[in-house]
Amino acid sequence: MTETATGTATGTYLIRGAAILGGDAEDLLIRDGVIAERGTGLSAEGATVIEAPGLVALPGMVDIHTHLREPGREDAETVETGTRAAALGGYTAVHAMANSNPVADTAGVVEQVHSLGRASGWVDVRPVGAVTVGLAGEQLAELGAMADSRAQVRVFSDDGLCVHDPVLMRRALEYVKAFDGVVAQHAQEPRLTAGAQMNEGTVSAVLGLAGWPAVAEESIIARDVLLAQHVGSRLHVCHVSTAGSVEIVRWAKERGINVTAEVTPHHLLLTDELVRSYDPVYKVNPPLRTDADVQALRAGLADGTIDVVGTDHAPHPSEHKECEWAQAAMGMTGLETALSVVQESMIETGLMTWADFARVTSTVPAAIGRVADQGRPLEAGEPANVILVDPAARWTVDPHKMATMGRNSPFAGRELPGAVIATFFKGHPTVLDGKLNTPYRYAADTAGAGSSS
Amino acid sequence: MKHLLSTENLSAANAIRILDTAEEMAAVGDREVKKLPALRGRTVVNLFFEDSTRTRISFEAAAKRLSADVINFAAKGSSVSKGESLKDTAQTLAAMGADAVVIRHWASGAPHRLAATDWIDAAVINAGDGTHEHPTQALLDAFTMRRHWSKLKGSASTGADLTGMRVAIAGDVLHSRVARSNVWLLRTLGAEVTLVAPPTLLPIGVEHWPCKVSYNLDETLEAGVDAIMMLRVQGERMNASFFPSTREYSRRWGFDDARLRALDELGLKDTIIMHPGPMNRGLEISSAAADSPRSTVLAQVRNGVSVRMAALYLLLSGDTREAATTPGTARSDKESN
User: Which residues lie closer than 8 Å to A203 by C-beta, 6 or more apart?
Assistant: First the structure.
């Protein structure tokens, strides 16, 4: 593939015999950035044919929770490297968290990240705006300016830090209603987690590492769902990690509170038993929990209590992990392993179908982020954000072969199922044969027009 | 045994082997020339990221009595305080040809990192890491208890374990690496352990530990103990609301003069009082208790040198017979690679 797509004038691709959302095999004709036809026995003059028997066709994945590190920590990741990783992982959109340096708390910074995303062209980069100035938890950032900017921010989060002041959280929840925004809360009561190193429980007791109790997450979620109910706002809970959190979100939804919740792939598969190695690759915030929590999270994702999978992709330079546990940075990479981990934990366990997978990795995260042209059905006339997955593939995770600059994958050495064979972003193949192809190129005159060009 | 990182996975055979070797080492300490040529030409580095004069000089004395060359590397006033990483420090020591690294670190798990990575190939001895473990302290405590227990039973220490001995460990269990190492080792050696502490100073999950837990020191004494070990309590814990005041702590959980008298009244004439030091006299232990004939505080210090000689000798002498015949769990195997 040597062509470079420009604007909406992309090539023509005929995908033959892919199981649509894991269902019956059908053909998809992609032309001019949209799905032109869906059916059987399709043909098209001059189309590049992709034989896809055995592959599953899904809507491009939308990550509601990604750390791209740029601006400020380009030694950890850049928008370019992070979005390459995203495309390889089956994503066509990522929400870039606000904890960059400078913090994404002004229209200028979110527009910069947005522009970097468009220049890279691997996925749609949707900047998340900080809730408070400098993530300091003291004063609201200019949320409206970020919403009105070219980045059209709809998701606001101090992720990495909790908006723990209840009045500030209430105001933020209320204020974002003016532009249909959502506050994505990193639920962590700071006083209960001062110096916390890992899940507080039987393992932390033996290892002598300061505990991060489940109640520190659950008490904030309980407070926030009640606040969201009181002011009639939309709340998103980042990286839910405990069985108790699942119960609280389930209770809130039963009461009709407008709350959505997210779980990371690593919390669906890994437990705090791994910390016994003291290897900081397992250090993450919120921490890995117990097997009972893992099972509750899986059940919650399967029954819809938890709405979406968000990677919390958090690359770090190796020197931040090659040290004592207490000195190490928190976080794990996730963009290139998310699909496989969710397949292993949710689909191969029989808890979910590929159609469910599309719901939790694409349809609902796009809806939460108000990304209009993503997470759409695979039907004629829809934007061609499509991925092809080989569910029978098995591969061994090698962080050194990844596109992300982060080598901190907790799945290193682990054999996982499922591989992304192709990613179509706006009708253009960013990934083909499981390898990076070329980025999508926006037409110059649409540079300021948001994501729907 | 390639490393000594924790007592959690130390087999009974290896624990008793260390204690028996320590008995032989103790005999050296009674001789006019307190020195063996066993580790001549070997280099032992005391790598201390946290102040601890007592443990450092104990290891230093142990290494020197075995004729090893000793290098003391304290984090303060070294490149470590200028931001050098543990990895760089370890690689530097490896390049200098260290055969064993005795590491004291404020971060739990730091010795495991040294042992598990390829930063350095030397034997690693954990001289206390964060609030995790302090295995040589537990071994010297067990050595002290075993001598006492064997004497009471009129049998030899060598080869014996602690079956049937009732040991109470009282104080700040939550922040104590000594308590953790003792719980695992005493369990392995067959003793019955009771932890006594305010609920705020016990870790979540302690109910799964192989011991009993009590909030009441008097009831524990009344039930009968053969050794009572008092843990150091830092007065600053009061400021974090672990307990209301040092006076209240002393009254409820300190080994004061009244409790010293109670041992006599309860007929517990052979019960010993232990403390890993340094003591807060008047807080967790009264001066009368610390200085009473029941106190083993100085014997513990003395035995510490013997036990550390044994550990250094067994790790560096290349004698791995018994380790090969007593494989530990999968995890301890991994740790020793």
Answer: A272, A273, A275, A276, B205
Where is the domain boundary, A339, A368, A397? A368
In angstroms, the CA A207 to CA B146 distance is 27
Nearest alpha carbon to residue B197 among B237, B169, B225: B169
- Same domain flag for A407 and A309: no
pLDDT in tens, A137-189: 999 999 999 999 999 999 999 999 999 999 999 999 999 999 999 999 999 99
Domain tally for chain A?
2
d(CA B46, CA B68): 12
Residues of B in contact with A322 (CB under 8 A): 85, 87, 117
Residue A410 domain-assigned?
Answer: yes
Residues A424 and A342 in one domain: no
- Is the domain of A160 the same as that of A232? yes
How many CA atoms within 13 Å lie on the side-chain side of A127?
36
CB B221 within 8 A of CB B266: yes
Contact check, Cβ <8 Å, A208/B116:
no
* Phi/psi-derived region of residue A242, left when phi > 0, alpha when psi is between -120 and 50, beta in every other case: beta
Query: Is there a contact between A275 and A330 (Cβ–Cβ < 8 Å)?
Result: no
Angle between helices B53-65 and B297-316 (to 10 degrees): 50
Per-residue pLDDT of chain B (337 residues; tens, 9 = 90+): 899 999 999 999 999 999 999 999 999 888 888 899 999 999 999 999 988 889 999 999 999 999 999 999 887 656 665 667 899 999 999 999 999 999 999 999 999 999 999 999 999 999 999 999 999 999 999 999 999 999 999 999 999 999 999 999 999 999 999 999 999 999 999 999 999 999 999 999 999 999 999 999 999 999 999 999 999 998 778 778 999 999 999 999 999 999 999 999 999 999 999 999 999 999 999 999 999 999 999 999 999 999 999 999 999 986 544 443 333 333 333 333 3
Neighboring chain A residues of B107 at a CB cutoff of 8 Å: 324-327
Q: Shortest Cα distance from B110 to chain A (angstroms)? A: 5
Both structure tokens of B287? 């001066």
Q: B260 is written with which tokens?
A: 């010293």
A227: number of Cβ within 10 Å? 22
CB pairs under 8 A between A and B: 78
User: DSSP letter at A130?
Assistant: P
| Residue A60 to residue A388: CA distance in whole angstroms | 9
| Cβ contact, residue pair B205, A204, below 8 Å | yes
Q: Complex ipTM, two decimals?
A: 0.89
Residue A5 lies in a domain: no
What the block records as the tokens of A226 is: 């009640």
- Return the structure tokens found at B150: 């064997």
Alpha helices (H) in A270-344, listed in sequence order: 291-303, 338-342
Burial grade of A263 (CB within 10 A; 0-12, 13-18, 19 or more): buried
Say whether both A340 and A289 belong to one domain.
yes
**Residues spanned by the domain of A214:** 60-368
Task: Report the chain A residue with the minimal C-alpha distance to residue B205.
Answer: A202
